[in-house]
Amino acid sequence: MPKIIDHDQRRREIIAVAKKLIIQGGFEAATMRSIVAEAGFANGALKRYFPSKDSIVAATFQSVLAEMGQRIAEGDPTSDPVQALRHHLESTLPLDTYRIESGRVLLALWEHSVANEELAALYRRHLRDWRALLAERIAAARGRDEPADAPEVIQLAGEAINMSIGANITSLMFPDGSLIPEFRAYVDRLMRRIAD
């Protein structure tokens, strides 16, 4: 009887290998050859799932963004809007080893997306969606009946995104997590500003 192969699981395994290689050695380490070797597939098997390195990169990028989205969604948005916003902000910061490593992958992929318009468009769409969701959460947390597109709300959402990106970049130099208390303090200061 022929072995039944779960192709979706194989794709997830390939993405996990690509992510691991990027964490260990940066974007350049995730070559088609190294992915095949690490995953234990035959040379031609990888092309069945991903025809090119760019397709693996795009899938890895989407996987890391989806993981971030899942962390954000785990906070109950119907609960206290202030706590929902805090959860949202903390979900995007490198506050544990897993998120530090995920940030490392995203930064490597962002750099690659500069020369790849398809990836750049994907990330720009992610940034727009992220800003819109944050603006909604900020407006709700402020409790002033402001629309999510009010200038001050949009400005605060932009600051929150820049704080997150900056923290992820900085954590590359301190992968031991020694800056986690500082990142938590960023959230505390931003939450106070939002409440003012």
TrEMBL record:
Cited SUPFAM superfamilies: Homeodomain-like, Tetracyclin repressor-like, C-terminal domain
Key word Lipoprotein present: no
Domain HTH tetR-type: 8-68
Signal peptide (UniProt feature, chain positions): none
Keyword annotations: DNA-binding, Repressor, Transcription, Transcription regulation
Keyword Cytoplasm in annotation: no
Record-linked InterPro entries: BetI_C, Homeodomain-like_sf, HTH-type_TetR-like_transc_reg, HTH_TetR, Tet_transcr_reg_TetR-rel_C_sf
Domain of life: Bacteria
Annotated region of DNA binding: 31-50
The protein's name: HTH tetR-type domain-containing protein
Organism: Streptomyces sanyensis
